[in-house]
Amino acid sequence: MTGTTPEQRRPLTALALAVLALLTERPMHPYEMVQLMRSRRDDRLLKVRLGSVYHTVDRLCGDALVAVVGTDREGNRPERTTYSITAEGRSRLAAQLIELLAVPVAEYPIFPLALAEANSLPVQDVSTQLQRRIAAQKAHHKLLRDGLDSARARDVARRHVIEAEYELTMLQAEIDWLESLVTELDDGTLPWAEAVLERTPQ
Asked: Kind of pairing, strands 80-85 and 66-72?
């Protein structure tokens, strides 16, 4: 890629990917991007904060992946700058999406680590806390399911909600596995060593 610096070739962050994808639809200013991401519930997938979006857009602009196309002002509101995606931005977005779809990435979530170290706690504490997690995940599953049902009722094209289908499937798999694990902990099917830690009073 002629003229591209190592800094420009750094992997795009999740927020940068989301911003570039939005700009493939039409030019936007950062505030509009935030409102659209929140209305589409993209905040399920990544942290959506106005300051972070502005910072991300600035970096993308510096890397020539987006470009300023105009400014506007409404009443007494601050001037807003509108950005569009460049040809290089489209190329980078496509390349990284293709890689992310094909190549598994180690993401190091914290919950598997908690499971790995849970044997240090009393078995009843582990069971109790996992039951709390199950309840929370079931509530999250219902919200996601309701949202997906609503999208389908509004004839939203399935290609726009496949990430919600994936999340629901993974969530249900976790719930099923955790319920099975709790059953084994409670009936003694899964042997548990003597705890070396005590639950900290709260």
From this structure: antiparallel
* Residue 82 host element (H or E): strand 80-85
Q: Dihedral (C-alpha) 112, 102, 59, 76: value to the nearest 10 degrees?
A: -80
Q: Considering all CA atoms of the chain, what is the largest pairwise distance in Å, rounded to the nearest integer?
A: 68
Task: Give the Cα separation of 23 and 13 in Å (integer).
Answer: 15
Q: 60 and 13 in contact (C-beta within 8 Å)?
A: no
Distance, CA of 76 to CA of 169 (rounded, Å): 47
The encoded tokens of residue 128 equal 């109790």
> pTM for this one?
0.81
147-183 confidence digits (pLDDT tens): 999 999 999 999 999 999 999 999 999 999 999 999 9
